[in-house]
Design goal:
The protein has 171 residues and is mainly α. Helix content is 67%, strand content 0%.
């Protein structure tokens, strides 16, 4: 009965949040493993982007559930995933990598710039992942390009565009 379910989880939002936790943790593990093999700076951001897109392609149902489904949002404390912890939260893992690039002098270290860069990078990798999942090879509206070629080109454009738009600021 729904009464039993809501007794265990509190409400629908908490139930959905806890159902997403394992997928978020698995994505964060994939990102962490890929980043560990890359050099600091742009190579790590590229590794994160590649791991993110590959996760979505390899786990299409889970990806769609977590990132492409409208749902009620529960308070952060309803999740097992610790919001803001780069070891558990994939967005926080991205923020850590962008902050690292800023500390290396590759991009601006201004807090608002860092947050905007994280969002732009995330939106780019999410957009490609979503398109690959929704539009198949037989889609006549958007011709299919080889995924590796497309992913490499998109990561090049994202990194070059970020570097140009958010240059290091000298105090």
């Amino acid at each position: 009965s729904t009464t039993v379910v809501y007794t265990l989880f509190g409400d629908k939002a908490a139930l959905i949040t806890q159902a997403m936790d394992e997928d978020l943790l698995e994505l964060t593990r994939a990102i962490t493993e890929a980043v560990a093999l890359a050099e600091p700076g742009w190579p790590r951001l590229r590794a994160m982007g590649r791991a993110y897109v590959e996760f979505g392609i390899e786990h299409p149902d889970e990806y769609a559930f977590v990132f492409m489904t409208r749902r009620p949002h529960a308070p952060n404390d309803a999740a097992r995933v610790q919001h803001g912890d780069p070891a558990q939260d994939p967005y926080a893992a991205g923020r850590r990598l962008v902050s690292e690039a800023a500390r290396m002098g590759l991009i601006s270290d201004q807090p608002d710039d860092i947050e905007l860069v994280v969002q732009i990078f995330w939106e780019g990798i999410h957009g490609l992942t979503a398109r690959l999942l929704v539009m198949g090879d037989d889609d006549n509206w958007v011709p299919s390009m080889p995924t590796e070629l497309h992913l490499d080109a998109m990561l090049d454009v994202l990194c070059a565009g970020i570097a140009q738009r958010f240059p290091p600021r000298r105090g």
